[in-house]
Design brief:
Elements: H1 2-31, E1 42-47, H2 54-69, E2 74-80, E3 90-96, E4 110-116, H3 120-124, E5 128-131, E6 145-149, H4 150-156, E7 166-169, E8 176-182, E9 197-201, E10 211-217, H5 225-235, E11 242-246, H6 247-252, H7 256-290, H8 292-300, H9 305-337, H10 350-376, H11 380-386
Parallel strand pairs: 4-9, 6-8
Antiparallel strand pairs: 1-10, 1-11, 2-10, 3-4, 3-7, 5-8, 6-9, 7-8
Helix pairs in contact: 1-7, 1-9, 1-10, 2-5, 7-10, 8-11, 9-10
């Protein structure tokens, strides 16, 4: 019964170690995924002023951007309607040159859009591939302009220069001339796939309300928050900073589930390893104690200590082999069940399975080393007298 329990523990250990390996590798892949811009040095917070008119709102945000730009240590400042890395976005079909664009079979017309402030891509560090970024001169009285990403250009304006084309929502509320194309970058989350995107200048859109402020600063990003809070309250003492954090922390929230799963899997994997080690050690130690006389007789008949050592270790390796043989098929099933939670790693990832098997084998050898040494050190005469 003890041997059966140890085999079942090893089977469970293999399954949990494979799952932990897959989820931990997924987490590492997510953490090392390039975002497409310079995320370090950015701090973000929201403001929600009580705005009664468009001119008032535009004037307030111009004043706020100007005050924040003047703070020591601030490199650049911009605003956005939808905070990047927050899972939120505006999605809709978009017209190009006055009509809905034709797309290849299986492609979508859905475009993700955002309303932003001057220097948005400069602040983020997103490369501008063609044209220019928004500037302070893009106001409600200047020609209305928009910027797209390279996925938008590839899907809706292939084999031509996107600059100068007119884009706008399907309802025709406002139309913008494309003045720039930027590199694809992560917008809602770390693990999203590229999607066509378009950005509008806030001063040219008849919607001004709550905004998120993005600041690029020198040194520790969060250290700027007291000065930023003071600048905001100089405009309106009742304004508070909403959910202030680094932009890196904001994106980390999009993989919080993966972090949780990886930590839980790692914890249960370590717990299973501990159970295997203690169970195997206890089983082998008990068997050595019950076989003391047998071992003494073997050694009295000429068995060498190395042979006795191998006799105990082979027992451990046999249990390990049976546990691994039973655990691998179950681990394959678990890996396939985790497919939707994996990123950058396949359910049948060879490295995860190999490390799990090596881990179980290493634990088994370590747990059986002490009982095996104890068996090999038995003195034949003392063992026979004890019997």
């Amino acid at each position: 019964m003890g041997r059966i329990i140890v085999v079942l523990q090893m089977t469970l250990c293999v399954v949990l170690l494979v799952a932990a390996g897959l989820l931990i590798r997924t987490l590492r892949n997510l953490e090392n995924t390039p975002l497409g811009f310079k995320v370090d040095g950015l701090v973000v917070f929201g403001v929600e002023p009580q705005i009664k008119s468009l001119p008032q709102g535009r004037a307030l945000y111009r004043d706020l951007i100007g005050r924040l730009r003047g703070l020591p240590g601030v490199e650049s400042v911009t605003i956005m309607e939808e905070r990047i890395g927050s899972w939120w976005s505006n999605n809709s079909d978009m017209m190009v040159d006055g009509k809905l664009p034709t797309v290849a079979n299986g492609s979508s017309r859905t475009v993700r859009s955002n309303v932003v402030g001057p220097g948005f891509f400069t602040t983020l560090g997103v490369p501008v591939l063609m044209g220019r970024d928004f500037t302070d001169s893009d106001t409600e009285n200047s020609p209305h302009v928009g910027i797209i990403n390279e996925e938008f250009a590839r899907r809706f304006l292939p084999n031509q220069s996107p600059l100068g084309h007119i884009i706008g929502p399907e309802n025709g509320m406002y139309q913008m001339t494309i003045i720039g194309v930027v590199k694809n970058h992560k917008y809602r989350s770390i693990n999203e796939a590229p999607i066509p995107m378009a950005w509008y200048m806030y001063a040219q859109i008849p919607i001004v309300g709550k905004m998120d402020v993005e600041m690029r600063v020198h040194g520790e990003p969060l250290a700027i928050l007291p000065a930023a809070r003071k600048a905001v309250q100089q405009i309106d003492p009742n304004l508070a900073l909403i959910r202030p954090m680094t932009q890196r922390a904001q994106y980390d929230l999009t993989i919080s589930n993966q972090m949780l799963f990886a930590r839980l899997a790692g914890f249960f994997g370590l717990l299973a390893v501990t159970l295997v080690a203690t169970g195997l050690y206890g089983t082998l130690a008990y068997r050595v104690n019950t076989r003391t006389a047998e071992i003494g007789i073997r050694m009295a008949m000429g068995a060498r200590r190395g042979q006795v050592l191998w006799m105990i270790l082979s027992d451990s390796l046999l249990l390990t082999a049976i546990g691994v043989a039973m655990g691998i098929p179950l681990a394959v099933l678990v890996g396939r069940a985790l497919t939707s939670s994996l990123y950058g790693v396949k359910p049948l990832d060879a490295a995860s399975y190999l490390l799990a098997v090596m881990g179980v084998a290493g634990v088994a050898l370590a747990a059986s080393a002490l009982p095996a040494r104890r068996a090999a050190s038995v003195e034949p005469l003392i063992a026979l007298r004890t019997e």
